[in-house]
């Protein structure tokens, strides 16, 4: 497997690409390519020899066969919302970006099998909408769902706000169609829930961040539509109370909790400062908040009443200090706007050292206390933006840039701060990447934290499937 940058694509290979996708399917214009060469956060900027936008699986297959023949590096791309630099090319200018955005066919909707088969370029929101038309729920939901695509979400094994109830993307994928690095078609759109016929190879493609092939379509699991919902924002005394509130809510709601998110006050303040229309629904500020949602497919489930009872019990047990219970969908959306506004507010607020980590839910309070203490010792007065899917044991644990520090000093400290956070994650048996992936951002951390035997197995798989290293080079391993 080659580790050196891919060579410059020869003119006749580029001509072949142009013929495969037709006049509307390619560009070398810098203005047209620009949105595909930088990431959502503006942290990574690359260059490309060409942008390709195939419309069919056969076009993707012919592109990959050509790339394999000429040893051309390909960067598969969906909505380009990656938060770890996985979706943009490197700086050589020799890589070719393959955007799946024009692959948009809904191939099959099967309400009785609770399944939908779609091209990789549909957005998460579009698949949610298609499922809703037949009374079904596609539950993967995250802040970028209007832009993030099925192929990208599978390739990052995306999580989001409903993992607690429905699992992450890996649990929702029943089948995958993909083009492997040698141009072979991996056709496995079975829609089966049971299939024990040897290695389940689609699992390798899920979460591979485009390093093992290009996903062209998927069969996804659906669920009954939710007909009753209840949403509340509760002020809680701290992370320990939040975890206990979650346990209480799961039990008292017959496990109807679909989302359980935690947010620290400084994080909320960022949203109120930077996202127009977001205001504090409670009369006074508190240190910590939990956003709770219950959902049920039965319309007669009185979930609002149940959530009210849960909050009342929690108040009695000092697990909740105050709360706002949404009276209708509009009010629920207002509460969710606060949560979904966080990434945008952070982006507007400027530099922070970001971590997307997980530890077992039960260990979360001790992890948070230990990590905040160690950071305070290291940078007295440090400010943290902590929020995320605590119900899944997953936090976005971000350290804000502190005042009176030069760019150079901050760049130096960045690594030390992250090492400190990741050391605590390891102490508590956690993961350095819960849902965003590895990309470029966490390659070094992965190399230094994953057992060498597992890394070796990953490298063997990569070199077996992609011996020339043409698929998204420089990412993950
Ligand atoms: C505001 C915001 C909120 C977010 N919230 C969450 C969240 O709650 N949970 C979460 O998990 N993530 C979240 N993300 C991260 C991101 O949205 C997800 O990782 C998403 O799944 C990426 O989808 P995409 O189509 O944008 O993929 P891209 O960013 O285009 O690509 C991501 C990776 O997948 C590869 N890839 C893309 N398409 C294909 C394909 N067809 N075949 C093979 N490889 C492919 C790329 O090469 C890259 O490695 C958020 C991002 C933003 C900007």
Q: Which value, in Å, is the CA radius of gyration?
A: 23 Å
Bound ions, cofactors and other small molecules, one mention each: flavin-adenine dinucleotide
- Estimate the mean pLDDT confidence: 95
Helical amount: 25-40%
| Beginning-to-end CA distance, first to last residue | 12 Å
Query: Which structural category do the helix and sheet elements fall into?
Result: alpha+beta
Tell me the fraction of residues in β-strands, as a range.
Answer: 15-25%
Number of strands: 19
Shape: globular
The CATH topology label of the domain at 106-224 is Uridine Diphospho-n-acetylenolpyruvylglucosamine Reductase, domain 3
Instruction: Output the number of helix runs.
Output: 17
Tell me the CATH architecture of the domain at 106-224. 2-Layer Sandwich
Q: CATH first level of the domain at 106-224: which class?
A: Alpha Beta
Low-confidence regions? none
Largest sheet data: 8 strands, antiparallel
Structural commentary:
With about 475 residues, this protein is of the alpha+beta class. Among the domains are: about 105-225, Uridine Diphospho-n-acetylenolpyruvylglucosamine Reductase, domain 3; about 230-345, Alpha-Beta Plaits, CATH 3.30.70; about 350-435, Alpha-Beta Plaits, CATH 3.30.70. It is built from 17 helices and 19 strands. Strands 12, 13, 14, 15, 16, 17, 18 and 19 form an eight-stranded antiparallel beta sheet that branches. The protein has a five-stranded antiparallel beta sheet with strand order 5-6-10-8-9. A four-stranded mixed beta sheet has the order 1-2-4-3, sandwiched between helices. β18 and β19 (about 395-400) form a beta hairpin. α1 packs antiparallel against α3, α9 (about 240-250) packs across α11 and α10 (about 265-275) packs across α13 (about 340-350). The longest helix is centred in the last third of the chain and has 21 residues, at about 405-425. The protein is globular, with a radius of gyration of 23 Å. The model has no long low-confidence stretch (mean pLDDT about 95). Flavin-adenine dinucleotide binds near residues 155 and 472. Flavin-adenine dinucleotide binds near residues 40 and 214.
């Amino acid at each position: 497997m080659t580790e050196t940058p891919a060579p410059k694509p020869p003119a006749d290979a580029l001509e072949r690409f142009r013929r495969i996708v037709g006049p509307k399917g390619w560009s070398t214009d810098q203005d047209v390519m620009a949105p595909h060469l930088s990431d959502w956060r503006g942290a990574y900027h690359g260059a490309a020899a060409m942008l390709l936008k195939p419309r069919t699986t056969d076009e993707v297959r012919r592109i990959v066969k050509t790339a394999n023949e000429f040893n051309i590096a390909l960067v598969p791309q969906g909505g380009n919302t990656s938060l770890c630099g996985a979706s943009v090319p490197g700086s050589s200018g020799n890589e070719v970006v393959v955007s799946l955005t024009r692959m948009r066919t809904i191939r099959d909707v099967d309400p009785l099998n609770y399944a939908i088969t779609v091209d990789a370029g549909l957005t998460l929101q579009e698949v949610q909408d298609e499922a809703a038309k037949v009374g079904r729920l596609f539950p993967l939901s995250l802040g970028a769902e209007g832009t993030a695509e099925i192929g990208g979400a599978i390739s990052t094994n995306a999580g989001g706000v409903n993992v607690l109830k429905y699992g992450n993307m890996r649990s929702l994928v029943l089948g995958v169609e993909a083009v492997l690095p040698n141009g072979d078609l991996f056709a496995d759109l079975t829609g089966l829930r049971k299939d024990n016929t040897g290695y389940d190879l689609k699992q390798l493609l899920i979460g591979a961040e485009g390093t093992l092939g290009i996903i062209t379509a998927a069969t996804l699991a659906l669920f009954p539509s939710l007909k009753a919902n209840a949403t509340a924002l509760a002020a809680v005394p701290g992370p320990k109370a939040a975890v206990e509130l979650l346990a209480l809510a799961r039990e008292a709601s017959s496990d109807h909790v679909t989302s359980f998110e935690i947010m620290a006050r400084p994080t909320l303040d960022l949203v109120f400062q930077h996202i127009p229309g977001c205001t504090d629904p409670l009369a006074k500020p508190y240190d910590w908040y939990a956003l709770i949602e219950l959902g049920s497919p039965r319309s007669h489930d009185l979930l609002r009443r149940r959530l009210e009872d849960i909050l009342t019990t929690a108040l009695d047990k000092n697990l909740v200090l105050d709360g706002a219970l949404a009276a209708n969908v509009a009010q629920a959306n207002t509460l969710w706007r606060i949560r979904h506004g966080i990434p945008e507010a952070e982006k507007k607020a400027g530099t922070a050292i970001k971590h997307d980590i997980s530890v077992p839910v039960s260990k979360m309070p001790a992890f948070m206390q230990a990590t905040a203490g160690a950071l305070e010792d290291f940078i007295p007065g440090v400010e943290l933006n902590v929020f995320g899917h605590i119900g899944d044991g997953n936090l976005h644990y971000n350290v804000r840039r502190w005042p009176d520090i030069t760019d150079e000093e901050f760049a130096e400290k960045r690594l030390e701060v992250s090492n400190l956070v990741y050391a605590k994650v390891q102490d508590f048996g956690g993961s350095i990447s819960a849902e965003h992936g590895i990309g470029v951002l966490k390659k070094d951390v992965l190399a230094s934290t994953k057992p060498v035997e597992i890394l070796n197995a990953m490298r063997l798989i990569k070199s077996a499937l992609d011996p020339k290293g043409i698929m998204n080079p420089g990412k993950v391993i």
